[in-house]
Amino acid sequence: MKVHVHVNHTQMKVDEVVQGKNADEIVSTTKSKVAEKAPFAIKLALRGMSNQMFMQELVKRYNSEAKPPKPLPIPASADEFLQIAAQMGVVTILEE
């Protein structure tokens, strides 16, 4: 599996291609890449989060900040998260 992660936020920018055996591995690697680019306080918070917490927090913050007409669902799995992240525009799935 291969995805392109592209986050362009005021506090960090991530533009990386991430590869992994499955969605769980992709999420774990993505979380690490985001933590590398994040300001210190966010980096500490990310390192203390499980992958599940990371996925849920990212979607919650997107819903809160972007205020989409229909809030995106909180993901229950890494596969579901990648589909939601693609809708959010922060991930492009290159290979499944």
Q: How would the global form be characterised?
A: globular
Provide the domain count. 1
Low-confidence stretches are none
Main sheet overview: 3 strands, antiparallel
Mean pLDDT: 94
Supply the helix-strand structural class: alpha+beta
Following the backbone from N to C, one meets helices and strands in this order, namely EEHHHHE
Give the fraction of residues assigned to helices: 40-55%
Fold and architecture overview:
With about 100 residues, this protein is an alpha+beta fold. It has one domain. Helices cover about 50% and strands about 20% of the residues. The protein contains four helices and three strands, in the order E-E-H-H-H-H-E. It has helices at about 25-35, 40-45, 50-65, 80-90, and strands spanning about 1-10, 10-20, 90-95. The chain has a three-stranded antiparallel beta sheet. Strand 1 (about 1-10) and strand 2 form a beta hairpin. Helix 3 packs parallel to helix 4. The protein is globular and about 30 Å long. The protein starts with a strand and ends with a strand. About 15% of the residues are buried. The mean pLDDT is about 95.
In a nutshell, what does this entry contain?
The chain has helices spanning 23-37, 40-47, 51-66, 78-88, and strands at 2-9, 12-19, 91-95. With 96 residues, it is of the alpha+beta class.
